[in-house]
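Hi R.,

As promised, here are both runs. First protein below:
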Amino acid sequence: MAVHRLLKWTAALLAAGALLLWPEATFDGHRTFAESRAAKDNLHLLAQVVCGEARGEPYEGKVAVAAVILNRTLDNRFPDSVAGVVYQTHAFESVSNGEIYKETTEECFKAARAALAGWDPSNGALYFFAPAKTSNAFIWSREQVRTIGKHIFAK
């Protein structure tokens, strides 16, 4: 993963004044910085949304959902923080219906960490949807870039 992309994601995840600790050893594929309080809070929120939106989906689909949230933090049309993206009005059904407050599994945390480490199986998508559950014209008008499980990922 390009360092500039990691730095942009890291900046989006840390609260003002938070301490960023860079690892001394080579990264293990799942962690790119020590999990400060702000980073842990954002990791937990990201994992909650992954579980709420992709429960029952394959692992790759879970990582892709997390990647969409991170991709949005890098796009000037969206808020520049994980919380800002997650809590944007009507952005995620799991926030509206409370699914994000159900149990968060270790697999969802693992998927969130994988996305934070740079894996983006969504191919840069900014949106995802379950075609069986939506007739929204806007979402269907987006360029579809990948299908994983029951979700279509789009730009």
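And here is the second one, sequence first, then its structure tokens:
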Amino acid sequence: MKAGLASKQQALKAKTVTRKKKKEAIKSGTLTEQERRQQALEKEREQQAARDRELNRQREAANEEKAITAQVRQLIERNRISREAGDIGYNFAVGKKIKKIYVTEEIQNKLIIGQLAIVVFDEESVLIPRKVAEKIQERRPEVIALMNDKKEEQDSEEDWYADYEIPDDLMW
């Protein structure tokens, strides 16, 4: 208008026409092009935020998994019991496979009564004390290959032999 291209009357008419179009669009439920773009941008931002939240959740889960693995590794390394060259083969199951380690008689007895446990970590069989094995079992139960509980075995043996009396004069 100031440049002399349109008169006041033409400018006023143009404003009223655009205002009427907006009112009609609102009443009829149709959106103007600018409003459609705005809604599309908002929707895209929401989707991006959802993707970012999911990626952050996955990253946090991976970091937590790494931290647990590091804790288990540290517990095993600090508390491992050295296996002296023993001559007694001790068999234990790892998944569907039977593994064998050679131990001394003292270590074998401790494994049987449950004072020691066998852990398989990084494809290596390691002996650790029971208390440490229980801590590891809280974090990663699949790492524990063998942890005997002598109390359970004694209870089942006592029930089995409860009906049979052992004579006093029996010599083994």
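A quick note on the second one: The longest strand covers residues 88-94. Let me know what you think.

Best,
J.
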